[in-house]
Design brief:
The complex is a heterodimer of chains A (198) and B (224).
Chain A (H helix, E strand, L loop, with lengths): L10 H4 L2 H17 L4 H17 L3 H8 L3 H14 L2 H24 L2 H11 L10 H31 L6 H25 L5
Chain B lengths: L1 E10 L2 E11 L3 E6 L5 H8 L7 E6 L2 E2 L4 H7 E4 L12 H11 L4 H14 L15 H13 L5 E5 L7 H13 L3 E5 L11 E6 L2 E6 L1 H12 L1
Parallel strand pairs in B: 3-8, 3-9, 6-7, 7-8
Antiparallel strand pairs in B: 1-2, 1-4, 4-5, 9-10
Helix pairs in contact in B: 3-4, 3-5
The chains are: A mainly alpha (198), B alpha/beta (224).
Protein backbone atom coordinates (compact mmCIF):
# COMPACT_ATOMS: atom_id res chain seq x y z
CA UNK A 1 0.00 0.00 0.00
CA UNK A 2 3.01 2.30 -0.25
CA UNK A 3 2.54 2.85 -3.98
CA UNK A 4 1.06 5.93 -5.53
CA UNK A 5 -1.74 6.38 -7.99
CA UNK A 6 -0.57 5.87 -11.56
CA UNK A 7 -2.80 7.84 -13.92
CA UNK A 8 -4.55 5.75 -16.55
CA UNK A 9 -7.82 4.91 -18.26
CA UNK A 10 -7.89 1.12 -17.86
CA UNK A 11 -10.92 -0.86 -16.74
CA UNK A 12 -9.37 -1.07 -13.25
CA UNK A 13 -8.87 2.70 -13.12
CA UNK A 14 -12.52 3.22 -14.03
CA UNK A 15 -13.91 0.79 -11.44
CA UNK A 16 -15.28 2.48 -8.30
CA UNK A 17 -13.00 2.34 -5.22
CA UNK A 18 -15.63 0.33 -3.31
CA UNK A 19 -15.76 -2.39 -6.00
CA UNK A 20 -11.96 -2.69 -5.98
CA UNK A 21 -11.75 -2.93 -2.19
CA UNK A 22 -14.54 -5.50 -2.15
CA UNK A 23 -12.77 -7.47 -4.90
CA UNK A 24 -9.54 -7.33 -2.89
CA UNK A 25 -11.30 -8.69 0.20
CA UNK A 26 -13.01 -11.49 -1.79
CA UNK A 27 -9.82 -12.59 -3.61
CA UNK A 28 -7.76 -12.59 -0.40
CA UNK A 29 -10.44 -14.65 1.36
CA UNK A 30 -10.57 -17.13 -1.54
CA UNK A 31 -6.78 -17.47 -1.37
CA UNK A 32 -7.10 -18.59 2.24
CA UNK A 33 -10.13 -20.81 1.68
CA UNK A 34 -8.61 -22.95 -1.07
CA UNK A 35 -5.87 -25.13 0.43
CA UNK A 36 -4.78 -26.56 -2.93
CA UNK A 37 -1.19 -25.62 -3.93
CA UNK A 38 -2.68 -24.85 -7.36
CA UNK A 39 -4.66 -21.91 -5.93
CA UNK A 40 -1.62 -19.59 -5.57
CA UNK A 41 -0.52 -20.51 -9.12
CA UNK A 42 -3.94 -19.54 -10.51
CA UNK A 43 -3.86 -16.39 -8.36
CA UNK A 44 -0.41 -15.39 -9.65
CA UNK A 45 -1.66 -15.68 -13.24
CA UNK A 46 -4.80 -13.69 -12.36
CA UNK A 47 -2.86 -10.94 -10.53
CA UNK A 48 -0.28 -10.71 -13.33
CA UNK A 49 -3.11 -10.38 -15.87
CA UNK A 50 -4.74 -7.65 -13.79
CA UNK A 51 -1.43 -5.75 -13.68
CA UNK A 52 -1.18 -6.05 -17.47
CA UNK A 53 -4.79 -4.84 -17.88
CA UNK A 54 -4.12 -1.88 -15.54
CA UNK A 55 -1.14 -0.76 -17.63
CA UNK A 56 0.72 0.58 -14.57
CA UNK A 57 4.00 -0.87 -15.85
CA UNK A 58 6.54 -3.33 -14.48
CA UNK A 59 8.43 -0.77 -12.32
CA UNK A 60 5.28 0.22 -10.40
CA UNK A 61 4.33 -3.46 -10.03
CA UNK A 62 7.76 -4.46 -8.71
CA UNK A 63 7.73 -1.49 -6.32
CA UNK A 64 4.76 -3.14 -4.54
CA UNK A 65 6.60 -6.41 -3.90
CA UNK A 66 10.15 -5.12 -3.44
CA UNK A 67 9.70 -3.78 0.14
CA UNK A 68 8.55 -7.21 1.40
CA UNK A 69 11.09 -9.39 -0.47
CA UNK A 70 13.25 -10.08 2.61
CA UNK A 71 10.19 -10.54 4.78
CA UNK A 72 8.94 -13.12 2.25
CA UNK A 73 12.28 -14.94 2.34
CA UNK A 74 12.26 -15.00 6.16
CA UNK A 75 8.63 -16.14 6.23
CA UNK A 76 9.39 -18.94 3.76
CA UNK A 77 12.40 -20.08 5.82
CA UNK A 78 10.41 -20.10 9.07
CA UNK A 79 7.50 -21.94 7.47
CA UNK A 80 9.84 -24.50 5.98
CA UNK A 81 11.20 -25.21 9.46
CA UNK A 82 7.72 -26.23 10.61
CA UNK A 83 5.93 -27.58 7.51
CA UNK A 84 7.02 -29.12 4.23
CA UNK A 85 8.46 -27.22 1.27
CA UNK A 86 5.15 -27.07 -0.61
CA UNK A 87 3.27 -25.75 2.44
CA UNK A 88 5.92 -23.07 3.04
CA UNK A 89 5.86 -21.98 -0.59
CA UNK A 90 2.03 -21.89 -0.66
CA UNK A 91 1.61 -19.75 2.45
CA UNK A 92 4.43 -17.37 1.45
CA UNK A 93 2.92 -17.00 -2.02
CA UNK A 94 -0.46 -16.13 -0.45
CA UNK A 95 1.07 -13.21 1.48
CA UNK A 96 2.98 -11.90 -1.56
CA UNK A 97 -0.12 -12.17 -3.78
CA UNK A 98 -2.27 -10.33 -1.22
CA UNK A 99 0.30 -7.50 -1.04
CA UNK A 100 0.49 -7.33 -4.85
CA UNK A 101 -3.31 -7.12 -5.07
CA UNK A 102 -3.50 -4.41 -2.41
CA UNK A 103 -0.77 -2.52 -4.29
CA UNK A 104 -2.76 -2.77 -7.50
CA UNK A 105 -5.76 -1.18 -5.79
CA UNK A 106 -3.57 1.71 -4.58
CA UNK A 107 -1.95 2.16 -8.00
CA UNK A 108 -5.29 2.40 -9.81
CA UNK A 109 -7.32 4.35 -7.24
CA UNK A 110 -7.00 8.02 -6.36
CA UNK A 111 -6.64 8.60 -2.62
CA UNK A 112 -9.57 11.00 -2.88
CA UNK A 113 -11.80 8.21 -4.24
CA UNK A 114 -10.61 5.88 -1.49
CA UNK A 115 -11.33 8.55 1.14
CA UNK A 116 -14.78 9.27 -0.29
CA UNK A 117 -15.64 5.53 -0.16
CA UNK A 118 -14.36 5.19 3.42
CA UNK A 119 -16.30 8.28 4.43
CA UNK A 120 -19.51 6.68 3.13
CA UNK A 121 -18.71 3.43 4.99
CA UNK A 122 -17.85 5.30 8.17
CA UNK A 123 -20.91 7.57 8.05
CA UNK A 124 -22.59 5.74 11.00
CA UNK A 125 -19.62 6.80 13.15
CA UNK A 126 -21.29 10.23 13.29
CA UNK A 127 -23.81 8.76 15.74
CA UNK A 128 -21.01 8.21 18.28
CA UNK A 129 -19.54 11.67 17.68
CA UNK A 130 -16.76 10.70 15.26
CA UNK A 131 -16.12 12.62 12.04
CA UNK A 132 -15.90 10.24 9.01
CA UNK A 133 -13.80 12.82 7.12
CA UNK A 134 -11.17 12.82 9.86
CA UNK A 135 -11.16 9.02 10.02
CA UNK A 136 -10.60 8.73 6.27
CA UNK A 137 -7.96 11.45 6.50
CA UNK A 138 -6.01 9.07 8.73
CA UNK A 139 -5.62 6.72 5.76
CA UNK A 140 -4.41 9.51 3.50
CA UNK A 141 -1.91 10.79 6.07
CA UNK A 142 -0.60 7.27 6.60
CA UNK A 143 0.07 6.84 2.87
CA UNK A 144 1.58 10.33 2.66
CA UNK A 145 3.83 9.70 5.70
CA UNK A 146 5.69 6.79 4.10
CA UNK A 147 7.84 8.85 1.68
CA UNK A 148 8.17 11.67 4.22
CA UNK A 149 9.62 9.39 6.93
CA UNK A 150 11.78 7.65 4.30
CA UNK A 151 13.13 11.09 3.29
CA UNK A 152 13.83 11.98 6.93
CA UNK A 153 15.66 8.66 7.41
CA UNK A 154 17.84 9.34 4.34
CA UNK A 155 18.66 12.83 5.63
CA UNK A 156 19.62 11.49 9.09
CA UNK A 157 21.74 8.74 7.53
CA UNK A 158 23.57 11.26 5.30
CA UNK A 159 24.20 13.56 8.27
CA UNK A 160 25.63 10.57 10.17
CA UNK A 161 27.96 9.65 7.33
CA UNK A 162 29.06 13.27 6.90
CA UNK A 163 30.17 13.21 10.54
CA UNK A 164 32.01 9.92 10.11
CA UNK A 165 29.51 7.66 11.90
CA UNK A 166 29.01 4.62 9.70
CA UNK A 167 26.39 2.85 11.79
CA UNK A 168 24.89 3.52 15.21
CA UNK A 169 21.32 2.61 16.11
CA UNK A 170 21.05 5.39 18.70
CA UNK A 171 22.58 8.04 16.45
CA UNK A 172 20.08 7.03 13.77
CA UNK A 173 16.92 6.48 15.84
CA UNK A 174 17.04 9.56 18.09
CA UNK A 175 17.26 12.25 15.35
CA UNK A 176 14.79 10.30 13.20
CA UNK A 177 12.18 10.19 15.98
CA UNK A 178 12.79 13.88 16.81
CA UNK A 179 12.44 14.88 13.12
CA UNK A 180 9.31 12.74 12.73
CA UNK A 181 7.75 14.38 15.81
CA UNK A 182 8.68 17.85 14.51
CA UNK A 183 7.13 16.97 11.17
CA UNK A 184 3.97 15.78 12.95
CA UNK A 185 3.77 19.11 14.82
CA UNK A 186 4.24 21.10 11.62
CA UNK A 187 1.66 18.96 9.81
CA UNK A 188 -0.84 19.49 12.64
CA UNK A 189 -0.32 23.23 12.39
CA UNK A 190 -0.69 23.11 8.60
CA UNK A 191 -3.96 21.16 8.94
CA UNK A 192 -5.24 23.82 11.36
CA UNK A 193 -4.19 26.54 8.92
CA UNK A 194 -6.17 24.75 6.20
CA UNK A 195 -9.31 24.82 8.32
CA UNK A 196 -9.23 21.26 9.68
CA UNK A 197 -9.78 22.38 13.26
CA UNK A 198 -13.34 23.62 12.86
CA UNK B 1 -8.00 44.83 7.85
CA UNK B 2 -5.65 43.32 10.47
CA UNK B 3 -5.42 44.96 13.89
CA UNK B 4 -3.15 44.28 16.84
CA UNK B 5 -4.14 46.01 20.08
CA UNK B 6 -1.53 46.08 22.84
CA UNK B 7 -0.48 42.51 22.05
CA UNK B 8 1.93 40.59 24.21
CA UNK B 9 2.97 36.96 23.66
CA UNK B 10 4.76 35.30 26.52
CA UNK B 11 6.33 31.84 26.22
CA UNK B 12 7.54 30.51 29.56
CA UNK B 13 9.55 33.32 31.18
CA UNK B 14 10.21 35.17 27.92
CA UNK B 15 8.23 37.86 26.11
CA UNK B 16 8.36 36.83 22.46
CA UNK B 17 6.35 39.90 21.43
CA UNK B 18 5.22 42.92 23.41
CA UNK B 19 3.76 46.42 22.98
CA UNK B 20 2.40 45.54 19.55
CA UNK B 21 -0.32 47.94 18.45
CA UNK B 22 -0.76 48.02 14.70
CA UNK B 23 -3.37 48.58 12.07
CA UNK B 24 -2.56 46.97 8.72
CA UNK B 25 -4.89 48.06 5.91
CA UNK B 26 -2.18 48.01 3.18
CA UNK B 27 -2.27 45.43 0.38
CA UNK B 28 1.43 44.41 0.68
CA UNK B 29 2.99 44.28 4.14
CA UNK B 30 6.49 42.91 4.79
CA UNK B 31 7.93 41.85 8.16
CA UNK B 32 11.69 41.63 8.65
CA UNK B 33 14.01 41.17 11.61
CA UNK B 34 16.78 39.01 13.03
CA UNK B 35 16.23 35.34 13.86
CA UNK B 36 14.23 35.06 17.09
CA UNK B 37 12.89 38.63 16.85
CA UNK B 38 9.25 37.41 16.87
CA UNK B 39 8.45 37.64 13.13
CA UNK B 40 6.95 34.15 12.78
CA UNK B 41 4.94 34.55 15.99
CA UNK B 42 3.53 37.82 14.62
CA UNK B 43 2.52 36.01 11.41
CA UNK B 44 0.94 33.11 13.34
CA UNK B 45 -1.09 35.58 15.42
CA UNK B 46 -2.86 36.73 12.25
CA UNK B 47 -4.72 33.49 11.67
CA UNK B 48 -4.90 32.36 15.26
CA UNK B 49 -2.23 29.64 15.08
CA UNK B 50 -0.70 31.55 18.00
CA UNK B 51 -2.79 33.49 20.49
CA UNK B 52 -1.82 36.63 22.41
CA UNK B 53 -1.12 36.24 26.13
CA UNK B 54 -2.73 39.67 26.51
CA UNK B 55 -4.24 42.20 24.14
CA UNK B 56 -6.23 41.29 21.03
CA UNK B 57 -5.78 40.55 17.36
CA UNK B 58 -8.72 41.13 15.05
CA UNK B 59 -8.77 40.11 11.40
CA UNK B 60 -11.60 41.16 9.08
CA UNK B 61 -13.46 42.19 12.21
CA UNK B 62 -13.11 38.76 13.84
CA UNK B 63 -11.25 38.10 17.10
CA UNK B 64 -8.57 35.41 16.71
CA UNK B 65 -9.10 34.20 20.26
CA UNK B 66 -12.82 33.48 19.87
CA UNK B 67 -13.24 33.03 16.13
CA UNK B 68 -10.00 31.32 15.08
CA UNK B 69 -11.63 28.66 12.91
CA UNK B 70 -13.70 31.28 11.04
CA UNK B 71 -10.59 33.39 10.46
CA UNK B 72 -8.58 30.42 9.15
CA UNK B 73 -11.24 29.87 6.51
CA UNK B 74 -10.55 33.40 5.21
CA UNK B 75 -6.81 33.73 5.90
CA UNK B 76 -4.43 31.43 4.04
CA UNK B 77 -1.07 30.63 5.63
CA UNK B 78 2.02 29.53 3.70
CA UNK B 79 4.74 27.92 5.83
CA UNK B 80 8.49 27.90 5.14
CA UNK B 81 8.67 24.14 4.62
CA UNK B 82 6.21 23.00 1.93
CA UNK B 83 6.73 19.33 2.84
CA UNK B 84 4.90 19.86 6.12
CA UNK B 85 1.79 21.32 4.48
CA UNK B 86 1.25 18.85 1.65
CA UNK B 87 -1.35 16.41 2.91
CA UNK B 88 -2.42 14.35 -0.09
CA UNK B 89 -0.28 12.11 -2.33
CA UNK B 90 -0.84 13.87 -5.66
CA UNK B 91 -0.82 17.53 -6.72
CA UNK B 92 -4.47 17.84 -7.76
CA UNK B 93 -5.70 15.84 -4.76
CA UNK B 94 -3.80 18.07 -2.35
CA UNK B 95 -5.41 21.14 -3.88
CA UNK B 96 -8.85 19.53 -3.77
CA UNK B 97 -8.42 18.45 -0.15
CA UNK B 98 -9.59 21.64 1.59
CA UNK B 99 -12.39 22.16 -0.96
CA UNK B 100 -13.77 18.68 -0.22
CA UNK B 101 -13.81 19.60 3.46
CA UNK B 102 -15.93 22.63 2.53
CA UNK B 103 -18.45 20.26 0.96
CA UNK B 104 -18.30 21.73 -2.56
CA UNK B 105 -19.70 19.58 -5.40
CA UNK B 106 -17.14 17.48 -7.34
CA UNK B 107 -17.60 19.50 -10.56
CA UNK B 108 -16.93 22.80 -8.80
CA UNK B 109 -13.86 21.34 -7.04
CA UNK B 110 -12.45 20.05 -10.32
CA UNK B 111 -13.10 23.41 -12.08
CA UNK B 112 -11.40 25.45 -9.34
CA UNK B 113 -8.43 23.07 -9.07
CA UNK B 114 -7.95 23.05 -12.86
CA UNK B 115 -8.11 26.85 -13.03
CA UNK B 116 -5.49 27.39 -10.30
CA UNK B 117 -3.20 24.65 -11.72
CA UNK B 118 -3.16 26.43 -15.08
CA UNK B 119 -2.71 29.88 -13.50
CA UNK B 120 0.43 28.77 -11.62
CA UNK B 121 1.83 26.50 -14.34
CA UNK B 122 1.37 23.20 -12.49
CA UNK B 123 -1.27 21.74 -14.82
CA UNK B 124 1.11 19.16 -16.32
CA UNK B 125 1.79 17.84 -12.79
CA UNK B 126 -1.87 17.34 -11.76
CA UNK B 127 -1.52 13.56 -11.20
CA UNK B 128 2.14 13.73 -10.21
CA UNK B 129 3.15 12.46 -6.72
CA UNK B 130 3.56 15.64 -4.66
CA UNK B 131 6.72 14.42 -2.90
CA UNK B 132 8.48 13.98 -6.26
CA UNK B 133 8.24 17.71 -7.05
CA UNK B 134 11.26 20.01 -6.69
CA UNK B 135 11.43 22.34 -3.67
CA UNK B 136 10.19 25.28 -5.72
CA UNK B 137 7.33 23.30 -7.24
CA UNK B 138 6.32 22.06 -3.77
CA UNK B 139 6.20 25.65 -2.49
CA UNK B 140 4.13 26.59 -5.53
CA UNK B 141 1.80 23.63 -4.84
CA UNK B 142 1.43 24.75 -1.20
CA UNK B 143 0.53 28.22 -2.48
CA UNK B 144 -1.94 26.75 -5.03
CA UNK B 145 -3.60 24.68 -2.27
CA UNK B 146 -4.24 27.93 -0.43
CA UNK B 147 -5.23 30.02 -3.46
CA UNK B 148 -7.84 27.47 -4.54
CA UNK B 149 -9.72 28.37 -1.33
CA UNK B 150 -9.84 32.01 -2.51
CA UNK B 151 -8.74 33.52 0.82
CA UNK B 152 -9.21 37.23 1.61
CA UNK B 153 -5.76 37.50 3.20
CA UNK B 154 -2.57 35.53 2.63
CA UNK B 155 0.17 35.23 5.27
CA UNK B 156 3.54 33.84 4.19
CA UNK B 157 6.27 32.82 6.62
CA UNK B 158 9.62 32.95 4.79
CA UNK B 159 8.21 31.57 1.52
CA UNK B 160 11.50 31.83 -0.41
CA UNK B 161 13.98 30.61 2.22
CA UNK B 162 14.29 27.11 0.73
CA UNK B 163 14.06 28.18 -2.90
CA UNK B 164 16.69 28.80 -5.57
CA UNK B 165 16.89 32.15 -7.37
CA UNK B 166 14.57 31.11 -10.23
CA UNK B 167 11.83 29.83 -7.94
CA UNK B 168 12.25 32.82 -5.58
CA UNK B 169 11.64 35.09 -8.56
CA UNK B 170 8.62 33.01 -9.53
CA UNK B 171 7.13 33.40 -6.03
CA UNK B 172 7.92 37.15 -6.12
CA UNK B 173 6.14 37.40 -9.47
CA UNK B 174 3.12 35.52 -8.12
CA UNK B 175 3.05 37.84 -5.10
CA UNK B 176 2.90 40.87 -7.38
CA UNK B 177 -0.18 39.55 -9.16
CA UNK B 178 -2.20 38.38 -6.13
CA UNK B 179 -5.32 40.48 -5.62
CA UNK B 180 -5.48 39.62 -1.88
CA UNK B 181 -3.90 41.45 1.02
CA UNK B 182 -0.54 39.74 1.65
CA UNK B 183 1.64 39.75 4.76
CA UNK B 184 5.11 38.31 4.14
CA UNK B 185 7.71 37.45 6.79
CA UNK B 186 11.07 37.21 5.06
CA UNK B 187 14.85 37.57 5.06
CA UNK B 188 14.70 38.12 1.30
CA UNK B 189 14.87 41.92 1.24
CA UNK B 190 14.61 42.15 -2.56
CA UNK B 191 11.15 40.58 -2.30
CA UNK B 192 9.90 43.66 -0.46
CA UNK B 193 11.06 46.29 -2.96
CA UNK B 194 7.58 47.26 -4.17
CA UNK B 195 5.67 46.59 -0.93
CA UNK B 196 3.46 49.28 0.62
CA UNK B 197 4.76 48.93 4.14
CA UNK B 198 7.53 47.08 5.98
CA UNK B 199 7.72 46.39 9.73
CA UNK B 200 11.08 45.77 11.39
CA UNK B 201 11.04 43.63 14.54
CA UNK B 202 13.81 43.50 17.09
CA UNK B 203 13.68 41.52 20.33
CA UNK B 204 9.89 41.26 20.26
CA UNK B 205 9.07 44.88 19.40
CA UNK B 206 8.34 46.82 16.24
CA UNK B 207 11.32 49.17 15.98
CA UNK B 208 10.60 50.54 12.52
CA UNK B 209 7.42 50.85 10.48
CA UNK B 210 7.86 52.57 7.13
CA UNK B 211 7.99 52.19 3.36
CA UNK B 212 10.51 49.53 2.18
CA UNK B 213 13.61 51.67 1.61
CA UNK B 214 13.54 53.38 5.02
CA UNK B 215 12.58 50.19 6.90
CA UNK B 216 15.28 48.09 5.21
CA UNK B 217 17.83 50.83 5.92
CA UNK B 218 16.87 50.71 9.59
CA UNK B 219 17.14 46.91 9.60
CA UNK B 220 20.63 47.04 8.06
CA UNK B 221 21.75 49.43 10.83
CA UNK B 222 20.46 47.05 13.52
CA UNK B 223 22.29 44.15 11.94
CA UNK B 224 25.66 45.94 11.73
Amino acid sequence: MTGYYVPGDSLLHRLPAGAKLLGLAVLCTLLLLFPSPLAPVVAVVLVASLYVVSGVGFTAAWAQIRPIRWFAVALFAMQWAFVDLLGAATSTARVVIAVALAGLVTLTTRTTAMMAFLERCLAPARFVGLDPFRLSLLLSLTVRSVPVVAGLATRVREAQRARGVEWSVRAFAVPLVVSALRHADALGEALSARGLDD
Amino acid sequence: MIEFTDVRVRLGQRDVLFDITLSLPERRVGVIGANGSGKSTLARLINGLALPSSGAVTVLGLDTRRQGAKIRRRVGFLFTDPDAQIVMPTVAEDMAFSLRRKGLPAGEISRRVGEVLVRYGLDEYADHPAHHLSGGQKQLLALCSIMVLEPDILVMDEPTTLLDLRHSRQVAEVLRTLPQQVVVVTHDLALLADFDRVLVLDQGRVVADAEPEAAIGHYRKIME
